[in-house]
Each structure stands twice: as structure tokens, then as C-alpha cells.
Design brief:
By secondary structure, this protein is mostly beta strands. It is built from 3 helices and 27 strands. It has one domain: Neuraminidase (6 Propeller). Keywords: Signal.
């Protein structure tokens, strides 16, 4: 009976998806997006990603650049880190254990699962090495395993930090090391109850003394109650030496990636905003993370636009909510961010790369690509530029889904693809 009911609900969702009717509206980008009216329905708009193999295809990059798969057959690669000697670490895994609350949650989870890899979670970190610098990473070896859905990675002062879904841990690291020399040391526990949004993003300050962990909410819009949102939807600042932590910024629904701006030391993030207010609400965003700031969740979005679903409301918090810096468009699911360097070429020298995993809460899919957001005077300036596309083809098939993006000081962009279980490397042609 339960199976029949689930299949009936799924059929209804698929019918709703097929009917469409919303049109492919232009996504609003930039610092002042025009926000449409809120929409509500019995079921949110949904679109299956329809995975397919790459075969002899690969992502498309701008003229003058080339893209190569440097590692395949991974176990859900999420985020990457380039070590001082040029080795690349890849965090592999999947976490979360949130129960479904309503029939629509069951439907949405089935829809989303169809667009994800069926590979088992690796729960490990893999090391890639190109010993002779020819662009071929001939060594692929497990650096550390038996981890708990590792996601965020950072390195400073001989310490490798890993954000598991339940704790921030560290390893001692010596240059050239290919395997962890022992078990990880816990720096501090991280919120792990339910883990609706399980990913824990990570960045380290330029002096190595402070760590920043992004912790997502335990719901879309407080449907599990505020008690399970304690210490969530925020960025923690953690003392690297002691593990002491405090809220650094709050009201960030799901800060999925963090990065430090070179020179200024300013922390930046990409955030996945709330669902089920329509295909063009609410914009996911790129923003500087201001110490002590409140970014709206759950009471409001994009500043002080009230979300009536969050009950009881809190007018004082809404009044204090600030706007993010830059809209990426609604439901693009940005999961990676890193600052560029001049070695990436004149057009892509100043700005950030963003990995967009792709939408599910929209009839006309968006995301499924890596974009470049140009900066001027330390801030986003202008329209985003497509950098790596073709993850979702014109045939409607999805061959890859970008997650983490990391700029290699050699002048390359590393892209983790958790659908194809591949790590890609984009370089300028010489």
C-alpha cells in the first residue's frame, strides 16, 4: 500500500512537471535583482535531471581554453583543495539523514534522487598527483578514509582541516605526503542533528588562526520547528588552536562554499536560498560575509522581503536583515566558489568562479555550469560569464553536475563533478 501511494504521488509530480506552463523567464543577476511576486502550489515545480554518460563528449569552455578529465571513477567528489606542492585533494561523500515530513517531501526526494549518482558515498579524501607537470595526474590514491561525509577542505601551517558532516577535524601534513600519518584530531563538534543540509563548507584565514565553517539550515523554511535550527543557517568562526567557536554571521540558509578574498582577507560565500515560492524566487547569491550581520533566513529574503511561511514572525530581525552582494539567479544551487588569479587569463583575471549544481525546483532547468562573476574594486561588477557549460545538454540529458571549484596557482581551474564522479581541469592553451 505504501509503495502504491508513493508511486501515485510520483506520477502526479511527473504530470505536473510535464505540464510546465511557467515559461523560461530570465534569471535576475547582479546587486539589485527585480524580484517577482511569491507563488504557492500544492506541489513545487520539479524537473528530473535525466543523467547520461559523457561518452566521447566533455564540457565546453571558452575559446583558448581546454578541459581534461584528470580523475574518474571517484565516489561522489564534492570539494577540492590544491596543496602547496600542487597535489590535489578531493573530498568524496554524501551525508544527511533528514526524515521526510510531508508527501511532497517524498516526491521531491525521489525527483532529486533521479538526478544524482547511484555510486556509494566514498567517505574519504583522495590525492591526485601530476609529478612531471604534464597535465596528467598519474597518481590517484586514498589520502584518508573512514570519514563522515567530508566536504570542506582547508590547509594552513602544516595542518590539513576537513569539515565532516558532524565535526571539524585536522591532520598533520608534510609537503609531499600521500597518506595521512594517523587518525584525525577533532577540532570541534559541528551541528549534526537531522542534517537536512548536511554539507559543512570551510575556509581558513590568511594567517591560519581562524577557521570558518558554513552550516546550513535543518529545513526549507522552519517546517521542523526552530528548536532544531539552533546553531544553524550561519557561519561559525573557530579558533584553529583551541576549537572555541562563535557565530560570525547568521540568517544564511545554506552557505555551501566559502573562500577568502586575496589581499583583503574578506570572507565570501555562495548561499542556496529557500524553495517553493516560485520558479524565480528566491535568488541564490554570492556575498561577502560581514561579521555580526543577519542575512534574513528564515523571516525574510534579499533584505527585508518577508516570507510569511516562517512563523512566528520576528519583525525586529527582519528590520536588521541586510541584502547580499550579488544575485546568481533562483535555484541554480551554487555549491562552489573561488577567487581567480591573473594566470587564468585577462578576461578571467579578477573575479570569482562559481560551480552551479543545477535546479530541481523549476520546470525550465537553470545552473548545471560553472560561471565567472567579474569583480571591480573588490566587488562584483557586471553580468556573469559562462565558463564551463554542457553539463546539461541541448538534448535534455545531464552528464555532469559541478560542485566545488578551485583555482590552481599554476593557472588552472579544478572542477568537481559529482554526477559523473569526475574531476575536470581547465587550462589556457599555450
Amino acid at each position: 500500500m505504501k509503495t502504491t501511494r508513493t508511486l501515485t504521488l510520483l506520477s502526479a509530480a511527473l504530470l505536473l512537471t510535464a505540464c510546465g506552463g511557467e515559461g523560461d523567464k530570465t534569471q535576475a543577476h547582479g546587486p539589485d535583482p527585480k524580484l517577482p511576486a511569491q507563488q504557492s502550489s500544492l506541489l513545487p515545480s520539479m524537473k528530473i535531471a535525466e543523467p547520461a554518460a559523457w561518452g566521447d563528449q566533455k564540457p565546453k569552455v571558452p575559446e583558448g581554453y581546454s578541459i581534461t578529465a584528470i580523475a574518474t571513477d571517484l565516489a561522489i567528489p564534492r570539494q577540492t583543495l590544491v596543496l602547496p606542492n600542487g597535489d590535489i585533494l578531493v573530498a568524496e561523500g554524501r551525508g544527511g539523514s533528514a526524515a521526510k515530513l510531508k508527501p511532497k517531501d517524498v516526491i521531491a526526494s525521489l525527483i532529486k534522487a533521479e538526478g544524482n549518482t547511484k555510486v556509494k558515498s566514498g567517505n574519504r579524501i583522495t590525492l591526485l598527483r601530476d609529478a612531471d607537470g604534464d597535465g596528467t595526474y598519474e597518481l590517484k590514491t586514498v589520502f584518508a578514509d573512514n570519514l563522515n561525509a567530508p566536504y570542506g577542505l582547508a590547509y594552513a601551517d602544516g595542518k590539513l582541516y576537513v569539515a565532516n558532516q558532524d565535526a571539524l577535524v585536522r591532520f598533520d601534513y608534510a609537503d609531499g605526503q600521500t597518506k595521512a600519518s594517523g587518525a584525525p584530531v577533532k577540532v570541534t563538534d559541528l551541528p549534526a542533528q537531522i542534517n537536512h543540509h548536511w554539507t559543512k563548507s570551510l575556509a581558513v584565514s590568511e594567517d591560519g588562526r581562524q577557521l570558518y565553517v558554513g552550516i546550513g539550515s535543518n529545513s526549507n523554511i522552519t517546517e521542523r520547528g526552530m528548536e532544531v535550527e539552533i546553531d544553524r543557517a550561519m557561519v561559525w568562526q573557530i579558533d584553529a588552536a583551541t576549537g572555541a567557536h562563535r557565530p560570525y554571521a547568521t540568517g544564511l540558509r545554506n552557505p555551501t562554499a566559502l573562500t577568502i578574498q586575496p589581499g583583503s582577507g574578506q570572507l565570501w560565500t555562495v548561499v542556496n536560498e529557500r524553495d517553493e515560492l516560485g520558479p524565480d524566487l528566491v535568488p541564490d547569491y554570492l556575498s561577502s560575509v560581514r561579521e555580526g550581520a543577519f542575512y534574513g533566513w528564515p523571516y525574510s529574503y534579499w533584505g527585508q522581503n518577508v516570507d510569511p511561511r516562517a512563523q512566528p514572525q520576528n519583525p525586529a530581525k527582519v528590520a536588521s536583515a541586510i541584502k547580499p552582494d550579488y544575485s546568481l539567479g533562483s535555484h541554480v544551487a551554487a555549491l562552489g566558489v573561488d577567487f581567480s588569479i591573473p594566470a587564468m587569463g585577462e578576461k578571467f583575471a579578477d573575479g570569482v568562479f562559481v560551480g552551479e549544481h543545477g535546479s530541481w525546483n523549476r520546470d525550465n532547468p537553470v545552473g548545471y555550469k560553472v560561471i565567472f562573476v567579474p569583480f571591480s574594486n573588490g566587488k562584483p561588477a557586471g553580468e556573469p560569464v559562462d565558463f564551463a557549460t554542457g553539463f546539461r545538454g541541448d538534448d535534455g540529458k545531464t552528464r555532469g553536475r559541478p560542485v566545488g571549484v578551485t583555482v590552481d596557482p599554476k593557472g588552472a581551474l579544478i572542477i568537481a563533478d559529482d554526477l559523473a564522479n569526475t574531476v575536470w581541469r581547465v587550462t589556457r592553451n599555450q
